[in-house]
Hints:
41% helix; alpha/beta; Rossmann fold; globular
Amino acid sequence: xxxxQAKALNLALPMLAISRFSAAPELIEERLPKMRARPQERPRxxxxxxFDITEDNSRGYPLITLQPKGRADEDARHLLYLHGGGYIxxxxxxxxxxxxRLCDATGASVSVxxxxxxxxxKAVDVLGAMRxxxxxxxxQYGAHNITIMGDSAGGGMSLALAQMLxxxxxxxxxxxxxxxxxxxxxxxxxxxxxLAKRDRMLTIGMxxxxxxxxRGDLAVDDPRVSPLxxxxxxxxxxxxxxxxxxxxxxxxxxxxERLQAPGMPEHTYxxxxxxxxxxxAVPIPEAKKVIAQTAQFLKEAAA
Length: 303
């Protein structure tokens, strides 16, 4: 049963900006210039008190790094966190709070790229930039010490990046963590129209529009934008989290169904009843449980 905090949050979702934005996909392109005019979020003072935080702009986009004050835990050394936002929306303050809680729970440091957004930058170039960044981090920390993870669109990009690494022979990360991942830009799940009736945040129309703006000349089922259709064999162990009040739980379920086949990578799947999209980013009891499960998964995978 969902906590009282989660129930209250679900009732409030239609009043949030993201829900209003999602409800009018035909206005997305018209609203983007106003969104771009806002300054990008940076970690607040509360995080600076707990972490050494740096920003590097040498790659053409900001890279934020959080390092726990003192020595990081060797069992979970570094996280590459790719934030959600439909590939078109900047990082939010709640993303920084989430990565801060992950660092506290794991002892790891984390890199948070504020990657270029669509429609100004398309999937091929965004993924190319993240592939180059991962290569740098693998040299610095060792690929086996890295976890690639993200939420929503960032979860989809995490899986797509791992598939790229496998295809080009690059060193694979030690593990993957996908929070409410968006894995199918076409929103083609047969169950999604019914699931959408319970989702008070996302709409199928919004998903398809964002996918169109991001993919550029790629086909909608190209694994670089819809990694659900990509190769899974040989990928690192992965943990997948999804909630039943999220239209994207369909993507997670379809991924897990594929992972049941022989020869697929090890995985763990956590489906939370009555949880909304990316609930782990807000301060509710169910989010604390996800952080604890993530930390345990990283320790087990490292062992």
